[in-house]
Amino acid sequence: MAKTEGLEVKMTFRNAGDFRESAGGAVCTNLAILVAGDLEFEFKNRLYRLSTAGDYLLWKPNLPHITRALKDSNLVTVRWPGN
Q1: CA 42, CA 5: separation in Å to the nearest integer?
Q2: Measured between alpha carbons, how far is 53 from 44 in angstroms, rounded to an integer?
Q3: Of 63, 56, 62, nearest to 78 (Cα)?
Q4: How far apart are CA 1 and CA 82, in angstroms?
Q5: How confident is the model at residue 12 (pLDDT cuts 50, 70, 90)?
Q6: At 74, is the pLDDT very low, low, confident or very high (cuts 50, 70, 90)?
Q7: CA 32 – CA 81 distance, rounded (Å)
Q8: Which one of 7, 32, 33, 46 is least enclosed by Cβ atoms within 10 Å?
Q9: How confident is the model at residue 58 (pLDDT cuts 50, 70, 90)?
Q10: Do residues 48 and 78 lie in contact, with contact meaning Cβ atoms separated by under 8 Å?
Q11: For the whole model, what pTM was predicted?
């Protein structure tokens, strides 16, 4: 992970079946870019699927969401400002 006051970049590995729930308390904008795998993000009952390398999702601060790994997956996340 690389982190400054203005920016945070990290690579995340998720195993198939991994389920994570975010309370949405982060005060940063998020950009998730799929490197490999298949991930599903749920925001207020809307589903977004990243299934092809290079697929991305951008969301504003304070949005609760759920992430599900449908396959083993690699994801790059960029956040600003950095936490």
Answers
A1: 28
A2: 25
A3: 56
A4: 11
A5: very high
A6: very high
A7: 15
A8: 46
A9: very high
A10: no
A11: 0.88
Cβ-proximal residues to 45 (8 Å cutoff; 6+ apart), any chain? none
Q: In 10 A of CB 45, how many CB atoms?
A: 5
Residue listed under structure tokens 């991930």: 39
Token digits of residue 53: 């390398």
How does residue 76 score in pLDDT terms, banded at 50, 70 and 90? very high
Structure tokens at 56: 């991305």
Specify the pairing of strand 46-50 against strand 56-59: unpaired
| Angle 5-11-83 from CA coordinates, rounded to 5° | 20
Residue type, 44: K
